[in-house]
Amino acid sequence: MRFVYNWALARQIDSYELNSKKLSVTDLGKELTVLKNTKGYEWLYEVSNATLKESIRDLDKAYKNFFNGSGFPKFKSKKKSEPRFYSRYDRIYFQDNFVNLEKIGKIKCKADYDIDLTTITKFENPRVYFNGRVWVLSVGIEANIKTVKLNDFSLGIDLGISQLAITNIDELDTKNINKTNKVKKLSKKLKRLQRQCSRKYIMNKKGESYQKTKSIAKLEKKIKKLHSKLKNIRFNHIHQTTFKMVKAKPYRIVMEDLKVSNMMKNKHLSKTIAEQGFNIFLNQIKYKCEKNGIKFVQVPAFYPSSKTCSHCGTIKKDLKLSDRIYKCSCGFICDRDKNASYNLANYGLV
């Protein structure tokens, strides 16, 4: 819950400034109980205690990530943060087309998985969030991993911009979903609505403040739904791509250790890279490999996969980013990204 998270973060900052100490989850939990009994904060009893305590644990995880090199925890904005909350795991159960959540009760739901959820009694880390269109319940369940007979070939995957993924198997190459007519039309519509919303804000400006009217609220709702639709299309495309590659059953999958945060510093390509979702692709391929018993290999970031000739092994040091066709002195000619996928597939084998 956003309020408790922000309150706990403010208490942590105050505690460090006064005593140079970080408060534990237990200490913050005790202070939260006092806060709930304070006049004006009685409404906190309307929310599950497990939901409030989980917000404190989320902050504690954010601090641990900060000590491990991530950024310092930030206050959550009402406008920018995604509406989400934790739901107590032992109060969740499914019955017919309904799910029971603590303090909320039975809610009509729809599941797309071929799993009988009514037979499951233990759910891990249940989270409820709003995706811009509907509320989604995300849970973890235990499942038996089936052993899969793998094929005797290595799959090299090179992520790109013109295409999402280029592999050493031509049938597994994947297009860039952002270049399809459907996504282009939706992106064009989104830009038009954003410009329209911006103009309305300027028209309703009074002094130094901007006035939000009902028509602006309707436009923002449409914009939010379009953002959600585009996000789901891209996410689904990545899921289908990673599923197709894992379904080919290679005995191992090899990818580069991409530094996406560094790639995003390029102002000309940052938007395109963000839309491709390289980090999402990487995380999905990792857990799907683990699930199917496929070995996942990440080569070092500075491995010259594009500059090395996959035919003779010669490294072409003067290869530029603008050179899309790889031409080697041995006579080998190949697409730059396809050549990189061949080298990744053979990494550590020759």
Describe the structure.
The protein is an alpha+beta fold. The protein has 3 domains: 66 residues; 55 residues, no CATH class; 149 residues. A 5-stranded mixed sheet has the order 9-8-7-12-13. A hairpin with a 3-residue loop joins strand 3 and strand 4. Helix 5 crosses helix 8. The longest helix is centred in the middle third of the chain and has 34 residues. The protein is globular.
Question: How would you describe this structure in keywords?
Answer:
350 residues; alpha+beta; 3 domains; 9 helices; 41% helix
| Helix-and-strand structural type | alpha+beta
Which percent range describes the beta-strand content?
Answer: 15-25%
Through-space gap between termini: 53 Å
Number of strands: 15
Biggest β-sheet: strands ordered side by side in the sheet: 9-8-7-12-13
Tally of separate domains: 3
The run of helices and strands is HHHEEEEEEEEEHEEHEHHHEEEH
Give a short account of the largest sheet. 5 strands, mixed
Query: Residue-averaged pLDDT, rounded?
Result: 89
- The number of helical segments is 9
Helix proportion: 40-55%
Which parts are unreliable, with pLDDT below 50 for 5 consecutive residues or more? none
Q: What global shape is seen?
A: globular
